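quick q for whoever's on today - can somebody do inverse folding on this one?? i tried earlier but teh output was garbage lol. tokens:
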């Protein structure tokens, strides 16, 4: 259900050892990548492995099928749940979304086709969202008697603001890719069928930079987002100190002085 593929960063070339960009491909075609209990558990386990791997510098989340990125929760599975089973599944699904959200390296979603409900929430859990022109985006949960529970009420509001998020969530309406770009749900809009290529290109560019600096920049941004400015600046200062005295900083300065590409120690 989840394919894992390694790609090189922009400075690693096309050959040699597996690269530092990891592509996670959703591949459950019979259900348009709907997230079942087993699928959620697989996402959780895989993201935990990636989070603990210091060689990973960026992650791309995509689909093996152009028709859908992911249509959200597996409602056919849920239809037979007791209340106790529903709560058990809730814990499992929360871990899956948090696994993507808490990746210590940048994550890029490549969306083609439908990204509905929990599918859009998976994409919103990434740091950047690239969409093909034919993508359809929605958080339609209120239409089936629930609310977005994979981070949608929080992540969408932080991304686009209260009123735009309220319009999407309260109505459950579907957005085309262009409207999604206009509202700020989508970061980059590309030709239909090319979202994956663009997302991999972005990830390769990110992964060519200092892994220590990129990880610390993401950490400072995420930790500071929910604080006031003064607290955020203190968080930034701590992240700066952790980076400035790293071996990556020493290598970066030396490479600049010697007019060569840096060979990042990653420490």
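ok took a stab at it. sequence:
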């Amino acid at each position: 259900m989840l394919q894992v593929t390694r790609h090189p960063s922009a400075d690693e070339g096309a050959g040699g050892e597996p690269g530092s960009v990891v592509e996670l491909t959703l591949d459950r075609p019979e259900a348009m990548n709907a997230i079942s209990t087993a699928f959620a558990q697989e996402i959780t386990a895989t993201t935990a492995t990636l989070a603990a791997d210091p060689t990973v510098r960026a992650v791309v989340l995509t689909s093996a099928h152009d028709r859908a990125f992911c249509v959200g929760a597996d409602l056919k599975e849920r239809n037979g749940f007791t209340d106790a089973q529903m709560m058990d599944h809730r814990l499992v699904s929360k871990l899956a979304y948090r696994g993507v959200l808490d990746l210590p390296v940048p994550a890029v979603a490549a969306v083609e086709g439908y990204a509905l409900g929990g599918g859009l929430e998976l994409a919103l859990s990434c740091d950047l969202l690239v969409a093909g022109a034919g993508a359809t985006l929605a958080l339609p949960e209120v239409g089936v008697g629930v609310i977005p529970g994979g981070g949608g009420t929080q992540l969408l509001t932080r991304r686009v603001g209260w009123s735009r998020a309220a319009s999407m969530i309260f109505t459950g309406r579907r957005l085309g890719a262009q409207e999604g770009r206009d509202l700020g749900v989508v970061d980059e809009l590309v030709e239909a069928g090319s979202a994956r290529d663009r997302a991999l290109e972005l990830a390769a560019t990110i992964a060519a930079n200092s892994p220590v600096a990129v990880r610390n920049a993401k950490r400072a941004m995420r930790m500071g987002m929910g604080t006031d400015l003064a607290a955020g600046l203190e968080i930034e200062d701590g992240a700066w100190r952790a980076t400035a005295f790293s071996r990556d900083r020493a290598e970066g300065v030396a490479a600049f002085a010697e007019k060569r590409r840096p060979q990042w120690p990653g420490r």
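fwiw The chain has eleven helices and ten strands. also The two ends are 33 Å apart (CA to CA). so keep that in mind when u check it
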